[in-house]
Amino acid sequence: MQYIDSIFNKIVSSNLLDLLSHRDSKILASLAKSINSTSYLTEKQAKLLLRLLKENNSVFQIDADNLNNPLWTRSFRPVTEDRKSTRLNSSHRCISY
Taking a C-beta distance cutoff of 8 angstroms, is the pair 9, 35 a contact? Predict the structure, then answer.
């Protein structure tokens, strides 16, 4: 078994994203930046990455075991609470949800 993020980095460097729809290639390029940054991925981003890899596996040809039981090189980044939901604008009398 190989790390799925390592497999994905090889895909990105081989320019296979150019063979996908514009939408998918933009999303995957953005996820590649997150993988290679210090912040890494959230669990939700990892699920999106796996879904897109599975949907486009006719292009990528990733072994099914790696997609169904993925190993990651790092743990996922925790999601922090959205600051907007905790901020009260001075023009608002109360917080609405």
Answer: yes
Asked if residue 91 lies in contact with residue 27, where contact means CB atoms within 8 angstroms, the answer is no
Rg (CA), the chain: 17
Question: Three-state DSSP class for 3?
Answer: strand
* Separation between Cα atoms, residue 7 and residue 73, nearest integer Å: 11
pTM: 0.79
pLDDT in tens, 28-49: 999 999 999 998 999 999 999 9
Exposure string of 2-29, with b = 16+ CB inside 10 Å and e = fewer, is eebbebbeebbeeebbeebeeebbebbe
